[in-house]
Amino acid sequence: MSKSKARHHKPDSAQRPVRPPARQAGQRLFDMPYSAQVPSPVKQEIGLASLIARVGHNAAYDIDVTLLDAADHRLIRTGVLLAHRVLDGRGEWYLGAPDWVPLLPKELILPMGQAELPEGLAELIRPFRRGAPLSPVAALRCERREFALRNADNVTVALLRDDKVTVRRNGLITARYREVMMTPVGPGIDAAQHNWLRECLTSAGATELDRFPRLVRRLGAPATGPSDLPVPADLTGGTFGQFLTQVLGASARELISADLALTGDGRDIRGAEKQLRETVGVLRSRLLGLPEVLGADWVAEAVEDLDWIIAPADSAPGADPNWLGGSHPSDDLAALGGPGADVGSMDAERAPTGYRSRLRSLRYLNLLERLVAAARAPRVGAPAAVPAIEGVNALYDGARSRFLRAADRLAVGGTPQTWATARSAARDLTRVAVIRALVAPDETTKERDRLAPALDLLEQAVQVDEDSAAATAGIDGLTPAEAFEAGRRFERDRERSSDVRSAFVSSWPKLRRKLG
Predict the structure, then answer these.
(1) pTM, two decimal places
(2) Could you give the CA distance from residue 189 to residue 390 in angstroms, rounded to a whole number?
(3) Could you read off the pLDDT of 29-72 as tens digits, one per residue?
(4) Nearest to 285 by CA among 118, 433, 454, 451
(5) Cα–Cα distance, 304 to 250 (Å, whole number)
(6) Torsion of CA 99, 103, 105, 110, to 10 degrees
(7) How far apart are CA 160 and CA 150, in angstroms?
(8) Radius of gyration of the chain measured on its C-alpha atoms
């Protein structure tokens, strides 16, 4: 574009974007060939009298930007852009995360006092980075020029901003692009003037766009790969493998969101702690429903880590991993919206004080990395290609069949082991039901309600057996009076066990017919 000679000055650094701004009302956006020569837009007969190079705030500059990320571009793919920018030898750190507002700032700019990443910035990206080393993944040079179109009265009617960007990776130029933005100002431009300006740009090869492509599209693979932390979406339309990727990835995203809500600058600490407990409870219940897919040992380790994150403040790191009470079927049913303990309802007096330190621990970051890895490549095998509903129903039907077979063998005089086996199968079923409820909530809720009374009786029966066994375990060391009392307690337990078992056995045939 032709222009008059003008002196340029540097814009305010906070306004220098890594990527072009979004389209504003009245603007026109054009993708332009990098080296194209644009005809002069000056045309006296339609009132466009002059084109002047702007020299004011944010009008013209050359800026060098280095994008930093892990080798797999995990930050960029998740919507977090980390960079350092240099203008006239002065550097600054840049963080852009519009997809994570308000948990992360839309844009954050810090002066580059030292070569190392500032601790505050490192804290914000920690759950996205997950311990991976950072290195330059791309270098961009942006050359911005801005021009003012004026009418015969020397009044500016439109601004033309011309950004030319060169992308280098591993020292080689991998992309060049040019973005031109036309913005009416003041009295604006009429239809004839607009058409003329558009004709000037399109004659040079420009294409009008609704919005400029995001920077990741300009970078290309692997930056354009799927996010490790997908936004929750419909779970029924894809394959079983896609379902698992979505469930695990979105669950990891929800956990990181709860992390950021608690460790950020928010003032509702109690609310953030409750959100963390609820998020962990939901993720926990989902993992417990997927041992056949993820592996029993993998699930047990992940659940132990989740329980450690939200364990009461006075709990040791090796505390009982079932402190949350999740071993009872009703706790898993709580995730379906039915009766059962609310995993996020700890009393305020018990609210842990160590959440923040745990969310900055290597153990937590390793858990996130394992969740992301499992989401990226769930160990499903051939069933990964079947429809999601079919794959989930296969999991549920298997657990259901195992429970029905175990329950069919129960008798009032059966061994404690037989009843304990049936309870274990019932717990497995309720855990898999949490997964099934994600794709078939109505059917799952209906069957849950049918099963709930029987499962409660089954739980009571086994609990009585366990209490009785515990009470008589140390009888050899008791005094005669204590032994007598223990014997009476044992008889009461036997009577109660018989009553509960009888209630289950008598109600089971009718329920069994309904279940099919």
Answers:
(1) 0.78
(2) 59
(3) 999 999 999 889 999 999 999 999 987 666 788 999 999 999 99
(4) 433
(5) 20
(6) -130
(7) 11
(8) 32
